[in-house]
Amino acid sequence: MKKIYLLVILISFLGFGQNGKPYQIYSSNGKKVSFAKMIKHLKKEDVVLFGEFHNNSLGHWLQLQTTKALGKDRNITLGAEMFETDNREGLTAYVKGKIDEKEFAEQVRLWDNYKTDYKPLVEYAKANNLEFIATNVPRRFANLLYKKGIEALDSLTLQEKEWIAPLPFPYDVSLPGYQKMLTMFEDHQEENLPKAQAIKDATMGYFISKYKREGKQFIHYNGAYHSNNFEGIVWYLNQYAPELKVATITMVESDNVDVFEKDNLGLANFIIVIDANILKSF
């Protein structure tokens, strides 16, 4: 009965899309691509950045399916924006089975939607003896930069500096994504806003490059804005490890997944258009 109940839920879940299609994958030039063809391409890459909407339930399900598919034929390492670098030891200890779930929740600052959206990925890593790397800068350091500027990071202790990209970190304000952030608010331009975004991108890129193992593919989960248009994390990976072959996935929402909007051209190597009516996890 339990299996049947779960199957009914899954069928209902996947039936939201127009004409019964909850999503459609496209290439960067807007051509429809099957899941199998996307995986075939991604297997060749050193790093895969899966850009997400944090509250998109189907997007999280697709992350898990993509990870499982790549893990069948490649040795993989996982990493995520959702875990901050000063919590890396706690995440590693849990994945290796050294602490239980209660201790894990006490040692690691888990996002509110961890259980619904990220726990399946962590449990997959644990069950398959995979590394899962916390890559994101501690939020308090990004807030410090936002409030007081890049120079404020110099006040961090040596231990704290181990949790961020090496200082001074490269920064290119001319990147379109950062330029967009500068003009995001009509009332003022806050120059530290894109810099706070950049320290996140830089730290994630740096630790992806640091923990990328020879012969292993690194799959990283992050908000779509961190890797869209091959900027953000991608730009920093090109600074820290230009030899790596990097592929990106992103998601967008639409009322009709069979229509590809021109604005999405070149957004990523693969663009997953998800039905806008899919339930959100928060």
Q: Can you give a write-up of this model?
A:
This protein is α/β, with parallel strands linked by helices and 282 residues long. The chain has one domain: Rossmann fold (3-Layer(aba) Sandwich), CATH 3.40.50.11550. The protein contains 11 helices and 8 strands. The chain has an 8-stranded mixed sheet. The chain starts with a helix and ends in a 7-residue tail after the last strand. Mean pLDDT is 93; it is low at 1-9 and 11-17.
Number of strands: 8
The percent range for strand residues is: 15-25%
CATH C-level name: Alpha Beta
Question: Could you say which overall geometry the principal axes of the C-alpha atoms support?
Answer: globular
Sketch the topology as an H/E string, one letter per element. Answer: HEEHEHEHHHEHHHHEHEE
